[in-house]
Design goal:
Strand content: 15-25%
Structural class: alpha/beta
Helix content: 40-55%
Radius of gyration: 19 Å
Distance between the termini: 50 Å
Number of strands: 7
Number of helices: 5
């Protein structure tokens, strides 16, 4: 698997190190940027190039729902995984309904690598389907134009 570009929005340095450890556990190549505050997160999502965003739910000047909305606005299609100590089932469901890709409890951090890989794979598949659909539409238009010229 090529190197993953991961943006991690996390206040707690030890939890960020947990993310780093989990994502590099099997020798996977991972470029990981750690941000803690809204302005840094906003600058990073505007920069783009992320394969996945991993976010805590409660941060000093941002919450998970707001971070999700910012990510959806600036880098739509990039998987957004919540990584939290537990915000409760109802809040987790609300985040998922709002567009979060996955919710992983920090207590079950071993699931994070699998969730990241699956999210990246599925995002790639969606992108390929979209490109194929656009290519089909383009070919259909070319066929219509050729038929018009023939007539």
């Amino acid at each position: 698997m090529p190197s993953m570009h991961v943006l991690c929005l996390e206040e707690n340095p030890s939890d960020f190190e947990l993310v780093r450890a989990v994502l590099s556990k099997d020798g996977s190549s991972c470029e990981l940027l750690h941000v803690r505050f809204r302005d840094d997160f906003l600058a990073a999502v505007r920069q783009g190039g992320w394969d996945v965003i991993i976010s805590a739910c409660l941060l000093p000047d941002l919450d998970g729902m707001t971070a999700l909305a910012i990510a959806q606005e600036h880098c739509p299609g990039v998987p957004f995984i919540l990584f939290s100590r537990g915000i409760g089932e109802e809040a987790a469901i609300e985040h998922l309904k709002a567009g979060a890709t996955e919710y992983v409890l920090k207590e079950h951090s071993a699931r994070l690598l699998l969730a990241v890989r699956r999210a990246i794979r599925e995002a790639g598949e969606r992108k390929e389907r979209k490109q194929a659909k656009e290519q089909n539409a383009k070919l259909e238009e070319q066929l219509r134009q050729a038929q018009k010229m023939e007539a």
